[in-house]
Write a structure and sequence with these properties.
This protein has helices at about 35-45, 80-85, 145-155, 200-215, 220-230, and strands spanning about 10-15, 55, 65-75, 95-100, 115-120, 135, 155-160, 175-185, 185-195, 245-250. The chain is of the alpha+beta class. It has 2 domains: about 10-100, Pseudouridine synthase I, catalytic domain, N-terminal subdomain (Alpha-Beta Plaits), CATH 3.30.70; about 115-250, Alpha-Beta Plaits (2-Layer Sandwich), CATH 3.30.70.660. Strands 1, 2, 3, 4, 5, 6, 7, 8, 9 and 10 form a 10-stranded mixed sheet that branches. Helix 3 packs antiparallel against helix 4. The chain is globular and about 65 Å long.
């Protein structure tokens, strides 16, 4: 490509079933990742190596409806046709939902808000359909107690107690804008919205809420765990299968 050609930055909105992937972030072959297969599809269509950067590093088994990523290219065909062409090169469990041009100043890593959803199948019988998108929990729980626990997460706190052991980020302070839980038949659904999340943070939050729902912890113990910063003060890390990144939003219009 001639050096004089200015490459446009494009924003992708991507959905994927994370069951078969070792997370979002590219790894050495033959390890399968979502970033890797999307880069491969883009590179095949554009006939050159394309690298993308994502907004959230979802880990192995986690799903997404609204992952955001960016790349730079010189695309000469209508974007909808380009999107369809790339999707034809992607596996059946990854889909580019939208592609749009964005300004050079757009930084995919500077999201203002992200929303995750976690789905629990609370029943003596295991889920048969859609089982890869939910966590089976057969014991009875109190939704009211779990909802009371959710309220302790809201606000700006140090969530060191809720991070996974492999998280090496320097700051563990995050803001949770919204956290709620409701039941829909046998499904218990938690929605949480924040300015960012630590490794395994949402899964540890859900495990803690389940312990509260069973009566093994009081809702107020969340506040004590936040204060202590000790992993031993929170519940277990639940399965990745129930977790889905719903959307990522930015302060400025792209």
């Amino acid at each position: 490509m001639p050096e004089s050609v200015k490459l446009q930055q494009y924003k992708l909105t991507i959905a994927y079933d994370g069951t078969m992937y070792s997370g979002w972030q590219r790894q050495r072959e033959p390890i399968l990742t979502v970033q890797g297969v999307v880069e491969k599809g883009l590179s095949e269509i554009l006939n050159r190596n394309i690298g993308i950067s994502g907004a959230s590093r979802t880990d192995a088994g986690v799903h997404a409806w609204g992952q955001v990523a960016v790349f730079r290219a010189d695309i000469q065909i209508p974007l909808d046709r380009f999107r369809m062409a790339v999707n034809s090169r992607l596996p059946h469990d990854v889909l580019i939902r939208r592609i749009e041009p964005v300004a050079d100043r757009f930084d995919v890593t500077r999201a203002q808000r992200k929303r995750y959803r976690y789905v629990i199948w609370q029943s003596k019988d295991r889920p048969l359909f859609n089982r890869q998108y939910m966590y089976h929990y057969w014991q009875d729980v109190s939704i009211e107690a779990m909802r009371a626990g959710c309220r302790y997460f809201v606000g700006r706190h140090d969530f060191a107690a809720f991070r996974g052991g492999e998280d090496e980020r320097q700051t563990t302070v995050r803001t949770i804008f919204h956290c709620d839980i409701h039941r829909r038949g046998p499904m218990i659904i938690m929605s949480v919205e924040g300015d960012g999340f630590l490794y395994h943070m949402v899964r540890n939050m859900v495990g803690t809420l389940l312990d509260i729902g069973r009566g093994r912890m009081e809702p107020s113990q969340i506040a004590r765990a936040i204060e202590s910063g000790r992993r031993s003060d929170v519940g277990p890390c639940v399965s990745a299968s129930g977790l889905c990144l719903m959307w990522v939003r930015y302060k400025d219009a792209e």
